[in-house]
Amino acid sequence: MWDYLDPVARLLDEHARVVRWDQRGCGRSERRGPYTVARFVADLDAVRERLAGPRTVLLGHSWGAHLALRYALDHPERVSHLIYVSGTGIDADRGWHPHYERNLRRRLGARLDRWEALGARDRTPAEEREWAVLQWSADFADPDAGLRHAEEMATPWLGLNRDCNRAINAEVKRELREADLTARCRALDLPVLIVDGPEDIRPRWGVDSLHQALPNCSRVSLAGSDHLPWAENPHDFRRAVTTFLDAMA
Question: Where is the AB hydrolase-1 domain (predicted)?
């Protein structure tokens, strides 16, 4: 996708200078690989060096939470705090995706048939946008409000990079199976905040092993929120993040 974190930046603008970017191959950035985790870590480092200085706070959401964690593991001296929002954890043995698929279908409700029909065929750009809006609407606890939020996320529509999505997802799955991320997390000596929404259709127990592995970690569950907790509980999201940063100042 493209950058959709403008609401997060606005919540934190009075507390911090916020830097965002469209990741490689996505949104307004050039669609040019390679699409690898290492390349995305290097891109993040280039953004940090150019715009954020020698050390920075990293906040990552969903796939971005994994990217932020990987960056912190590779470059801990360049990160002051890590904020891990709605990630899916590091436990390869307790697969979360089947639970997500079931919860997604349940949450879609009356929109399920249309979503499945669109997903079963080649789509026009307009249909691709409709399919994405339907799927994203399930990432909010309130289905009607979710549709409105999803429409806002899809405007302007900058298109999805399927090649990037497939390549990164496949590599992350391999990494979780083959790399000992748990041991690396145990050695990560910097403050970490995990932020979850209890209504997230991705099971929150997937993050338990990450929470347990990190030596300096706190975790906040924001009532009434799903995968994008700042959208459904902005007050508590801002309070959790700013309190964490103030405590570690």
Answer: 8-125
Domain ranges in the chain are: 6-248
Q: Which residues contact 183 (CB under 8 A, 6 or more apart)?
A: none
40-44 contacts, C-beta under 8 A, 24 or more apart: 40/67, 40/168, 41/67, 41/70, 41/71, 41/74, 41/75, 44/68, 44/71
Note whether 63 and 86 are within 8 A (CB): no
What is the average per-residue pLDDT within 149-177? 95
Smallest Cα–Cα separation from 40: which of 78, 5, 7, 66?
Answer: 66
- As its CATH architecture, domain 6-248 has 3-Layer(aba) Sandwich (3.40)
Confidence of residue 249 (pLDDT cuts 50, 70, 90): low
pTM confidence score: 0.96
CA nearest neighbour of 186 among 54, 86, 76: 76
d(CA 122, CA 131): 11
Per residue in 224-242, pLDDT (tens digit) is 999 999 999 999 999 999 9
Question: Is residue 213 scored above 90 in pLDDT?
Answer: yes
Rounded to the nearest 10 degrees, the angle between the axes of helix 37-47 and helix 162-178 is 100
pLDDT in tens, 88-114: 999 887 788 999 999 999 999 999 999
Dist CA 132 CA 150 (whole Å): 8
What are φ and ψ of residue 122, in 5° steps?
-65, 140
- What is the C-alpha separation between 179 and 70, in angstroms, rounded? 11
